[in-house]
Amino acid sequence: MILSVIFAASIWLILSREWLRVIMGLSLLGHATNLFLLSSGSENDILPQALILTAIVIGLAIQTVLLIFAYFARQAQNIDDLDDMKEVE
């Protein structure tokens, strides 16, 4: 039940028009996926734990890059809406 709420919240955030909510939704989706992997494996199986650790590192790196891109886009154009970013060249 909790996983479905987290997945639903992450999809809702990803479908938002503001870039910060989209980044938060992607991060939340990664965490929900990690929880799903953790709950699907047995306690003695080391593979889900290794996958989750790798996913945390990669997710943090992607989140950092997206936040840096969003910061510089905000500094250059002062735009929060993703649709407005498409029009800027």
Describe what you observe in this structure.
The protein has 4 helices and no strands. It has 89 residues and is mostly helical. The protein starts with a helix and ends with a helix. 3% of the residues are buried. The protein is elongated and about 50 Å long. The protein has a single domain, classed as Helix Hairpins.
Briefly summarize what is shown.
It comes from Bdellovibrio bacteriovorus. The chain has helices spanning 2-14, 19-40, 47-77, 82-87.
Write the SSE topology.
Blueprint: H1 2-14, H2 19-40, H3 47-77, H4 82-87
Organism: Bdellovibrio bacteriovorus
Transmembrane segments: 48-72
Pfam families: Oxidored_q2
